Amino acid sequence: MIKSVLPSAIKEYLLAFADDEHLMGQQHTEWIGIAPFLEEDMAFASIGQDELGHASMLYALILEDSSEIDAFIFNRKPEEWRSCQLVESNHRNWEEALIRHWCYDMAEDLRWELFRESSLAELVLISERALKEEKYHRQHADALVENLLTVPASKSRLMKALEEIVPEVVELFSSIPGETEAISSGLVSGKYCDVFSTWRLRVENRFGTLDPKLFTTSHHQSRIKRHSDFAPLYGRIREVFLLDPKAVW
Amino acid sequence: MRIYEVFLKADGKEEFRHAGSIEAPTDELALVLARENYARRAEGTRMWVVDRKNICVSEEGFIDANLNKSHRHNDGERVAKWRKSQRNKKSDD
């Protein structure tokens, strides 16, 4: 049973999820105003805001005080982040952004499902709330992809993006710090990589059979080392904050 | 792409109201995109999206007021007055 002051291993475990959600949300919201059509740029940024909301619920749990979230996000050293390569990498083409959204959200509900019977009551509530939203994130991503796959030119662009992004997803599922402690304390019901096969099935049901090598290649960084695209991304996140770090918001 | 009209219904006895329009390639995407564009701040509890081509539109002038038929524009005032006088008459009896 976990008490309100969380052991550091558990905090590390939750931090990996919070940082993934935060950076994924940030990446999606950057499409506001430049997505292929007006309705989609609103929808994509709105979905990004949902992810930022999930991140802030997790940060609040880790920090035990939601008023510290901003300082924690804007003042952390790159090596103190626990995000994965998938959410840090700079996918600037629309097909890559869409495939990443599809891949990430097809993996995200599987991650929240692990908290359904968590020994930490707040996490059960947070996961229920997130799962409700995730259903529509998946529907959004899948309906768009399903449609675009019927157009040969779009299909070839999507498949190329998929081959680039699938190996990054392998790392998302593996090497989560504190996972052993998270399982033994009852925080989560199992290892995230145990549901990777479910994710792979979703991919191959939608896109057809892919080269098996794609599913085993991981750019293993163990979430300790940052992707080379992290620095400019973090720069964009801190851009306004750094104008006046002492400002009270 | 097709144009859809979006309707939202607030909780309770409120009726469905037109919220705006949206461009989408399929019915499913129209629903998904309308959700994020018009209902992300809990503006309603139920939503309709209608392909604009399925709306029967009247021709111009079809429902213009016919001002030469004053009996059609009765506000009920004369009837109310008459009924009131009848009631008063009854109570005087």
Walk me through what this model shows:
The complex is a heterodimer of chains A (249) and B (93). With 249 residues, chain A is mainly α. Chain A has one domain: Up-down Bundle (Ferritin), CATH 1.20.1260. Chain A has helices at 8-29, 38-63, 69-74, 85-88, 94-113, 121-148, 152-173, 179-184, 196-207, 230-238. In chain A, helix 5 (94-113) packs antiparallel against helix 6 and helix 5 (94-113) packs antiparallel against helix 9. In chain A, 37% of the residues are buried. The mean pLDDT of chain A is 93. Chain B has 93 residues and is an alpha+beta fold. Chain B has a single domain, classed as Roll (Ubiquitin-like (UB roll)), CATH 3.10.20.520. Chain B is 30% helix and 25% strand. Chain B has helices at 27-38, 77-92; strands at residues 2-9, 16-24, 46-51. A 3-stranded antiparallel sheet of chain B has the order 2-1-3, covered by helices on one side. The relative contact order of chain B is 0.17.
